[in-house]
Amino acid sequence: METQILQIDEQHINAEWIRQAGEIIKAGGLVAFPTETVYGLGGDALNPASAKKIYAAKGRPSDNPLIVHIYRIEDLHLLVKEIPEAARKLAAVFWPGPLTMIFEKSEAVPYETTGGLNTVAVRMPSNPVAAAFIREAGGYVAAPSANRSGRPSPTAAGYVAEDMRGRIEMILDGGDVEIGLESTIVDMTGEEPTILRPGFVTKEMLKDVLQSVSEDETMMSCSDGQAPKAPGMKYRHYAPKGDLTIVDGAERRVVDYINEQALRLREEGGKVGIIGTNATIADYRGDSCKSVGDRADEAAIARTLYRILREFDDEDVTVIFSESFTAAGLGQAIMNRLLKAAGHKVVHV
Ligand code: TXA
Ligand code: MG
Question: Which of 69, 99, 136, 199 has CA atoms 20 to 30 A from the CA of 184?
Answer without folding.
Answer: 136
